[in-house]
Each structure stands twice: as structure tokens, then as C-alpha cells.
Request: fold
Amino acid sequence: MNENLSPYLQPGRFVDSAHPKVIEFARLNSQGTDAREKAVSLYYAVRDGIRCNPFQNFTADESYRASACLERRVGWCVSKAALLAAAARVVQIPARVAFADVKNHLTTPRLAETMGSDLFVYHGYTDLRIDGKSVKVTAAFNLLLGTRFRVKPLEFDGRADSIFHPFDEDQRRHMEYLRDRGVYADVPVDEIQRACRETYPKFYALGAAAAKE
Reply:
């Protein structure tokens, strides 16, 4: 991470760390005496306290915003990454959002049919600066969801990267990282929407209807 860490401590439009509810969430869930302990407790609060739902309205700004994810208690990889970054900034842990294209070999039939692909562009995760080191953290799948689909839970100790496993509990191929999309101080919504519009034209065109469960 660049030595100028100030952009990763400031509120953003989507990583909205100045939102009152985000501040409250961060203060309630940042347990511990140092940055590492606080980051770990925030990770689990976001991972398991916010339900994961990949069916989102990609056209709506609220689908990408940390505070909206928190208020709804449901989000997807991008909004959950934004929420973890925002909460970390509240407790003075420099944080940015990061993205990669991934291939999910265990995509559910419904999701594959709806999106028309098992490729997920701009999968979101969080990049935290802890003890002078950049650490990758993925809070997307809550524990209950992972257990349901036999996906290995992602644990986080504040020291090592926590990214998707290549195989599940039954040694089936799971997640494959294909392309690094970079790191940002705030969610690059225009870029993500452009990529989603091109990759999932039918799903993107559904707008609000895409988020119906």
C-alpha cells in the first residue's frame, strides 16, 4: 500500500465511514487493544452479521454502499468489502477495496442461469494495512452460507491473507482467480457497472427485479 495512507482513512461515497450507523457498528464490533485484534473482530462481524446475497440490482448505487449494506443486513461481495473497509477506517485502520475476476466452479444452477456465466467480474474484497503490512480479507460468504454449500470457511487472524479456497470440503474445484482488477480508495462503481453490463447483459437489464428473492 502506498506510504501516503490518508486516502484510505477518509470517508468515501461508497466506503462511507462517516455514516453514523457505520461508526456505531465499528465501535461496537472492534474488540481488542490493537489494530490486528480490532480488524479480526470487525471481519467476523461483517462476515457473519451480514447475509450474502449475489442477486443484486447492479444499476443502483445503494447496492455498492457500505451503509446500505449494513442497514439491510444483506449484501454481496462488493458492498460487504466496502463495509469492512469503512468500519476499519472508523477505528483508524487504513483500508481500501480491491477486486478480481473469479470463476466459481460451484455456482448454483439458479445463479448460473440468471447471470449466464460462472465468471464473476469485479469480485470484491478488502485490503487492510495492519502492522505495516497489506493483508487481503474476504468477508463475502457468511458462515451459514458456506456450511450449506460445503465451502471451506474463510478464517482471518489479522496476519495472513484470507481469500477464497481453490477447493471445497469435498475437494471439488471451487474458486479460481483469473484477473486482478486493482485496489481503490472507494468503490469504482462506474467501472463495475460497465463490466457487469457487458458480461451479464440480461441480468443487468433486470434492474431492481434482479434483487428479488
